[in-house]
Amino acid sequence: MRARATAWRRLTAEPFDVLVIGGGVTGAAIAYEAARRGLRCALVERGDFASGTSSRSSKLVHGGLRYLKEGHIALTRESVREREALLRDAPGLVDPIEFVMPHYRGRKPGRATLAAGLAIYDALGGSWQHRYSRAGDTLALVPVLDDRALLGAHVYRDATTDDARLVLRLLTAASTAGATVLNYANAAPALESGDVVGAYVTDIAGGRSAEVRARAVISATGAFADGLRECVGAAPRLRPLRGSHVLFPAWRAPLAVAVAFEHPSDGRPVFAYPWQGATLAGTTDLDHDAGFEKEPSIAPGEVAYLLDAMRYQFPSLGLTAGDVVSTYAGIRPVVDNAHARAPSRVSRDHVVWHERGLITITGGKLTTFRPMALDALRAAAPRLPSFDAAPRPIFVRRPGGRLSGRYGENAAAVAAIAKDGELETIGTTPFLWAELRWAARNEGVVHLDDLLLRRTRAGLLLHDGATQHFDRIAAICRDELQWDAHVWESERGRYETIRREHYSLP
After folding, report:
1. DSSP state of 110
2. Torsion angle of the four alpha carbons 377, 379, 384, 390, in this order, in degrees rounded to the nearest 10
């Protein structure tokens, strides 16, 4: 992605075909799909790229097996097909993972019920992926599983990703295709004769403002969409729901596969699985009534809920709050302003609204970012030069491997900029020191939390949030970001406050 000064100059130089507001996975996908079809496109994000829901998801690329129970067949079909496309086009970034769903005497769901659901699930995806595992074989897969009254398990396949890196990969591809992208840039719709014709953009990090004109303005702001819609006189239609997660060190909750089960208190589906060298457990599903003025955080009741689930399914581990490495919470954009149903039963379908020239795309889920992007562009088509909205491969497929998956055509360059010792990992994480250097040099880093919570996930995966490595991190920031001692201390204080208030136990 281009440097901020270059991005601002391009942003204010000429009108665009498409202006995207929102730098999460949907906005990034819209910018990418527009740019590679030859449209002049710009994207602005008021915080950091992926700083909202798109870095706080469950990290799963999945069809949503539980949606079948609610009768959402079309959503599940679309999701499993997109999962397969991502597994094909983004190896090393989106990877398969086996899910184990154990069966116990006297517990639901029963073997026959789940077998039927998985048969439909696999049929929608076009391949037979599930199997039944007897009790002994199940314990070989998951030795720490509760073995009392265990009958066996169904094993099926879904996929996992680093959600923030997926966003960065899309934005990098969009920028390479000609899009202009800028983070820490707030936008408000610009109206002319009652119609949206662009946006007033304020570069928060650069301290400058300008009006940006565009044929089509697309809001991809997720759970925050009602705020922009209010600017054009539209009534609220979203129901923000909070999903929270906890991470444990892998040695404390050792899992080689994902385990999905129902919570003992309310029957909601929960899971635990290996992610980036740790074990991730989630998720809750609650109405988020705390507003959007500050980042969401896990609540004490949610911590207790997830710990109860882990102790129920893995009693031999004896997990406590003291074992938690970090936490995070995200706000789901769900369309249900009537609050008529329980949170877990609300549809995750996406919607497109066209209001006084403002096109809003919201709802949906991580897995379906591509069809969401294309639907938004189809809605904008009457305002745009003609273009082909047919789906294309998500990325140019490259040989598998972690760096190739995370950085695409830049993988070799990431390794090439490494200084002595920078091809080593950061502590116990899978992230290389060279990735920190690459991100600081090339990926629009403005604050330390951008670097440690999103470009890499060292701040989530290390017990101390990577503070034991601060001397080495500071040296990279001095080299690549020209941060002097005063700036470093300011950024360090900001990061430690954010981590304490929003990524640690309450």
Report:
1. P
2. 50
- DSSP character at residue 163: H
Longest dimension (CA), the chain: 70
In this predicted model, what pLDDT tens digit does every residue of 88-101 receive, in sequence order?
999 999 999 999 99
With a threshold of 0.85, does the pTM exceed it? yes
The CA distance from 262 to 107, in Å, is 9
* Tokens matching residue 175: 């920028």
Q: What are the boundaries of each domain within the chain?
A: 4-54+164-237+345-383, 94-160+239-337, 417-502
Measure CA 263 to chain center.
24
Tokens 């990418």 belong to residue:
32
Query: Could you report the per-residue pLDDT of 425-445, keeping only the tens digit for each?
Result: 999 999 999 999 999 999 999
pLDDT beneath 70, residues of the chain = 1-2, 337-341, 344-347
Which residues touch 308 (CB under 8 Å, ≥6 apart)? 263, 264, 265
pLDDT single digits (tens) 10-55: 999 989 999 999 999 999 999 999 999 999 999 999 999 999 999 9
Report the CATH architecture of 94-160+239-337: 2-Layer Sandwich (3.30)
Handedness of CA 165, 166, 168, 169 (dihedral sign): positive
- Residues 332-359: b if buried by 16+ CB within 10 A, e if exposed: bbbbbeeeeeebbebbbbbbbbebebbb
Q: How far apart are CA 225 and CA 431, in angstroms?
A: 33
Residues 6+ apart with CB under 8 A from 86: 61, 94, 159, 161, 367, 394
d(CA 369, CA 89) in angstroms, rounded, equals 14
CB 368 within 8 A of CB 63: no
Round to whole Å and give the CA distance between 489 and 313: 43
Q: What topology is assigned to 4-54+164-237+345-383 in CATH?
A: FAD/NAD(P)-binding domain (3.50.50)
